[in-house]
Amino acid sequence: MEKLKLVKISDIKVSRNFRNSIPSPEKMDRYRDAYCLGKDSKHSYEKCAGQVKPIILNENNMIVDGYIQYLVMKEMDEEYCYCCVEHKLVVYTLIDGVHTNGNSKEYTWRVPDNTNWDDFKRKISYGDLIWVRTSNGIAPIIVTNITTIEAIEGELSGLERVAKKDIMKGKLWKNIEIDEKVLIKNSVSEEWIPAHYAGLTYEGKPTVWNNGGTSWTTDMIGIPKYIRLPGSVSFGKHKDHMTNLLARC
Predict the structure, then answer these.
(1) Burial (Cβ within 10 Å: 0-12, 13-18, ≥19) of residue 32
(2) Judging by beta carbons within 10 Å of its beta carbon (0-12, 13-18, 19+), is residue 42 exposed, middle or buried?
(3) SS3 170
């Protein structure tokens, strides 16, 4: 929801439900009394004396809340009142990934927010290969993280989008043999060290045998932050899946 702003009362729209409702005389009188107190009321707004609460509007200037306040301001022949605009919140699916050109830097793309992509959202998982839009056209990436975030509709429009619904499941790792040599590290600044591939977790994360071992020497496995095949694509940083709620007042 945006900050308070002045809106012409004549520009405010009232739904049929509000028009057909009959506010109680007690509530109307309470708002009238607050109006009459004017600037002496500690609850009033500086430029709209007597207004005790903002009127909540949707993006079409239709009243969502504050109908009685609206009626009193109109009754008192006020030209303006303070309002907050209520925006539509959308749940976005964001995908982090790395390009298949050997660059380990992660980038973020958004999945288009319409129902045609619901099946894609259900099927996509860690380690899949998908196609995304970039400044150089459509390119393949390996998925390193999937995040759900709630934001105002259109707020993330600056992010590039996933380009195709095609998914190559576990393309990079499902064809790798157990004990095959890989390189791992736990931070960007570290040197790559050799390890042996130990398969995928249930979440699709690639694992290695601990301490450089193999399936013949240990049964302990770990999940590195970065992993790649020698001379091939690097696999991005693992992150905990999370949901961010963007508060709006």
Answers:
(1) middle
(2) exposed
(3) coil
